[in-house]
TrEMBL record:
Superkingdom, natural source: Bacteria
InterPro entries xrefs: Mitotic_Regulator, Sel1-like, TPR-like_helical_dom_sf
Gene source species: Shewanella sairae
One family name in Pfam for this protein: Sel1
The UniProt record lists the keyword Transferase: no
Protein name: Sel1 repeat family protein
């Protein structure tokens, strides 16, 4: 009987999606759900959850998720877990979240396995349990879990540090296109962490991550083009990638652009442009950029305000222990323009 109900739901839903829209599909699922079909109950919950074919109603969604979850629907169990985990339509309750995550995990639900691990990881009270569950999700192929296993092995968080094992997990995630893992594979080859250093391979993996918008990979790729590491020197490409990273707020790229425009290295010298990029990095707390800004403002006597700007940036850098900035302040202490 249940098979016939489910078959009718599929047929009606297919007809609805192609001819009369989600409203008819909603009615089809509602009728089947009220007759006890667990698949229809879960789908009906989603209709209420996202307001498809009906008015969005979080409480009705939760009721139908609960009904399906009680009947053993793994996706419904996991979804209820997330609601309690993050307080979505219900009071936040980690114990209830774990209850439903465990129910789904017993059925091998990969996201539930990972969610349990992350609860233990976030409390920082039971790393062995966190690793146990995250590893289960990683073994089943969840790229984010594979990445987290790599990070814990890299830094020895709750587990003995093992850079070779970390590299293995990074690679598993990277092969699925996990962007941060693409970067860390490049970094491993760049610095010889868990694998033999290989600048050509580092360049190739950085490029994959950079093409996917990873700011630090874009910065490192720019540096490799600038210095000819793993590839030939190409200042145009270096500037291109520095710009992409700098526009995402990467201070290393912002500083590098400052240097390039200050020196006219591969481009026409442009001090105002250099100051723009140094300032962007300085405002984010980069001490070297703060110091260089001080020197540029101090050397420019065209505006009396520049001396005050120089002192400001020297002070910012000196507060972080930048030795040259400290020396600049000390050598200028007796000069009239620095006396208040």
């Amino acid at each position: 009987m249940k098979f016939l109900i489910l078959l009718m739901v599929f047929l009606l839903a297919g007809c609805a999606s192609s001819e009369q829209g989600p409203a008819l599909a909603f009615e089809s699922y509602r009728k089947a759900a009220e007759q006890g079909d667990v698949y229809a109950q879960y789908e009906l919950a989603r209709f209420y959850d996202f307001g498809s074919g009906t008015v969005k109603d979080k409480q009705k969604a939760i009721e139908w998720y609960q009904t399906a979850a009680t009947q053993g629907h793994a996706d419904a169990q996991y979804t209820l877990g997330t609601f309690y985990d993050y307080g979505l339509g219900v009071p936040e309750n980690r114990q209830q979240a774990l209850h439903w995550y465990y129910q789904a995990a017993e059925q091998g639900h990969i996201d539930a396995l990972y969610a349990i691990g992350m609860i233990f990881h976030s409390t920082k009270q039971n790393y062995p349990q966190a690793i146990y569950w995250i590893r289960k999700a990683a073994v089943k192929g969840l790229d984010e879990a594979q990445y987290d296993m790599a990070r814990m092995l890299t830094f020895g968080v709750g587990i003995e540090e093992d850079r070779q094992q970390a590299f293995t997990w990074y690679m598993k995630a990277a092969e699925q296109g996990h962007v941060a893992s693409l970067f860390y594979i490049g970094s491993a080859y760049d610095f010889g962490q868990g694998v033999a250093a290989d600048p050509v391979k580092a360049f190739a993996w950085y490029q994959k991550a950079a093409n996917n918008g990873h700011a630090k990979a874009q910065f490192y790729l720019g540096s490799m083009f600038e210095q000819g590491q793993g590839t030939q020197v190409d200042k145009v490409q270096a500037i291109k990638w520095y710009l992409k990273a700098a526009e995402q707020g990467n201070t290393g790229a912002q500083y590098s652009l400052g240097v390039i425009f200050e020196l006219g290295d591969g481009v026409a010298q442009n001090i105002p442009e250099a100051i723009t990029w140094y300032t962007a990095a300085a405002k984010q707390g980069d001490a070297e950029s703060q110091y260089v800004l001080g020197t540029l403002y101090e050397s420019d006597k065209s505006d009396p305000q520049n001396l005050q700007n120089a002192e400001k940036w020297y002070l910012e850098a000196a507060a972080q222990g930048h030795q040259k900035a400290l020396e600049a302040l000390m050598s200028s202490a007796s000069k009239p323009q620095f006396v208040h």
